[in-house]
Amino acid sequence: MEPSILNIVFGCPEGEGPDNPWEGSPRELAEFYAELLGMQILREDWLVIGKDKNSFPRLAFGDGPSDYRPPRWPDPEHPQQLHLDITVSDLEAMEELAIRIGATRLQDKGEYRSYADPVGHPFCLYRDGAEGNQESGGPRPGRIERVVFDCFSPRALAAFYEGLLGMHTRTLDSPDRVVIARDDGTLPMLAFQHAPKYKPPRWPDPAHPQQLHLDLDVEDSEAAQELAERLGAIRLPDMGGSCPVYADPAAHPFCLCAPGQ
Questions:
Q1: Does the pTM exceed 0.85?
Q2: pLDDT digits (tens, 9 = 90+) for 57-88
Q3: Strand pairing report for 169-173 and 143-151
Q4: What single DSSP character describes residue 148?
Q5: How does pLDDT run across 119-168, given as a tens digit for each residue?
């Protein structure tokens, strides 16, 4: 079985204190994305949201230092590293919802609009042109269509994740942007876009924190680690977590999580 995306983990400032690690920014983000994506909080010991206990990927929050430096797109001194592309059935209605629950609009490109969540992570809302996607009583919740990686060389980074995740279908292949998908169409796809001034995270350095990372579900941890290293990943320091942490060739961290980890 090929690895799949288990969690999309958002960095953000720590909670308000050691007795309330998931209050403050982590909970604000969890509640924001739960409403935007029609999800619910599944775990309180570590804030995780999802459609239900059997649906993936889930979103998790709180992986960041107290002095976490969020992106301030489009400020090149505080660049984004990854963002989500979310498809919606009614762009105007979902923009109204997003702003009401704490988003800030960054740009309107016609076919999509970009926003910052309450901490500053950018995300994009795209119109979903599929017929029959309007639910009775209002627009359907957003759906995570793509996880988008900023990098210098989209084709090189796409090749890494193709080999790691077995995502061999390229729905877009250009020097500036590559999108890869699973053969069966399972979402989310992964996109890689050229960012000439890309500044990678230097995890675990708090001055250069990660913003989002992927927890990948693997059956055989040892085999997955060997494959990741053969494809060009670098093992990162063990900071007490249960899953091995790696950096991809563009320095984005990711975790390889076997059953029970």
A1: yes
A2: 999 998 777 788 889 998 888 889 999 999 99
A3: unpaired
A4: E
A5: 999 999 999 876 445 555 567 899 999 999 999 999 999 999 999 999 99
Would you say 48 and 34 are in contact if contact means Cβ atoms under 8 Å apart? no
Q: Residue 118's Cα: distance from chain center in Å?
A: 15
Contacts of 23 (CB under 8 A, 6+ apart): 15, 16, 17
| Distance of alpha carbon 154 from alpha carbon 179, whole angstroms | 9
Structure tokens at 120: 């500053």
- H-helix segments, the chain: 25-37, 91-100, 154-165, 221-231
**Paired tokens of 83:** 């963002």
Instruction: Give how many domains the chain has, as a whole number.
Output: 1
DSSP 89: S
Residue bearing tokens 């000439």: 196
Q: What is the CATH number of the domain that holds 212?
A: 3.10.180.10
126 bridge partner residues: 87, 112
Interstrand relation of 4-10 and 58-61 (parallel, antiparallel or unpaired): parallel
48, 6 in Cβ contact below 8 A?
Answer: no
Question: Which one-letter amino acid corresponds to residue 188?
Answer: P
Where do the DSSP E strands lie in the chain?
4-10, 40-43, 48-50, 58-61, 82-88, 104-108, 112-116, 122-127, 134-135, 138-139, 143-151, 169-173, 177-181, 189-194, 212-217, 234-235, 245-247, 253-257
Contact, 158 vs 170, CB < 8 A? Answer: yes
Describe the strand order of the beta sheet including 4-10 as a list of residue ranges.
40-43, 48-50, 58-61, 4-10, 212-217, 253-257, 245-247, 234-235
Instruction: Name the residue range of residue 110's domain.
Output: 4-257
